[in-house]
Amino acid sequence: MWLSDIISSKRWFVISLLITLMIPGAVLATLSFYAEDMTQEEALQVAAVAVKNYIDENPPRQGWKATSVYINDKQNLVVDVHVPRFDHAEVIRTRSERIKYSYLKLACPPQDAWVFDWLHGEDRIWVNLHHHGKSLLEAPCPSNKEKGFFS
C-alpha cells in the first residue's frame, strides 16, 4: 500500500520521470532503425586512414619511410616502405625468406598497437619493402595478440 500512496502523491514526479526516459529511448530506437553497417570495402578504407595516422605518429625503423598506404586489388591493406640505403636493401635481398620476414616485421606496428582495433575479421596489414621501386618483400604483418597465435 505504501507504494501506491507514494505514486498517487507524487504523480507529477512519476509522469515526468517516465517522459524523461521514454523520449530519449524513442529517439535512440528511431536512429538505430535507420543506421547502416559499413561494407567490407568501407571498413577497409577507414582502417587505411587509421593505419596512415598510426604510421605518421610512429614511423617505421629509423631511415625507412612509409611512402603510401593503399588497398590493392586483392582487398589487402598495403603499406609501401622505402628502404633508402643500398647496403640495408642488399642485406635484406640476399637473406632467406624467414630472415627477410624478420626484417619486414621491423616496419610493422607492435601487436598491441591501437591500429589493430580498426581491422575487422581476416583483414591484416601488408608491408611492401622496396628499394627505389624494386620490391624486396611483400608480406602480411603478424596479427594482434587477441586473434591468436596461428592467425
Describe the protein.
- The protein is α+β, with helices and mostly antiparallel strands and 151 residues long.
- It has two domains: 2-34; 40-143, GMP Synthetase, Chain A, domain 3.
- It has five helices and four strands; from the N terminus they run αααββααββ.
- Helix 1 (2-9) packs across helix 2.
- The mean pLDDT is 84.
Question: What labels would you give this structure?
Answer:
151 residues
- What gap, in angstroms, lies between the N and C termini? 61 Å
Total number of helical segments? 5
| CATH top level assignment of the largest domain | Alpha Beta
* Unreliable stretches: none
The CATH architecture of the largest domain: 2-Layer Sandwich
CATH topology of the largest domain: GMP Synthetase, Chain A, domain 3
How much strand? 15-25%
Q: Summarize the main sheet.
A: 4 strands, mixed
What percentage of residues falls in helices of 4 or more residues?
Answer: 40-55%
Alpha carbon gyration radius: 26 Å
The total beta strand count reads 4
How would you summarize what this structure contains?
The protein is an alpha+beta fold and 151 residues long. The protein has two domains: 2-34; 40-143, GMP Synthetase, Chain A, domain 3 (2-Layer Sandwich), CATH 3.30.300. 44% of the residues lie in helices and 18% in strands.
SSE topology:
Blueprint: H1 2-9, H2 11-34, H3 40-57, E1 65-71, E2 77-82, H4 86-94, H5 97-104, E3 125-131, E4 134-140
Parallel strand pairs: 2-3
Antiparallel strand pairs: 1-2, 3-4
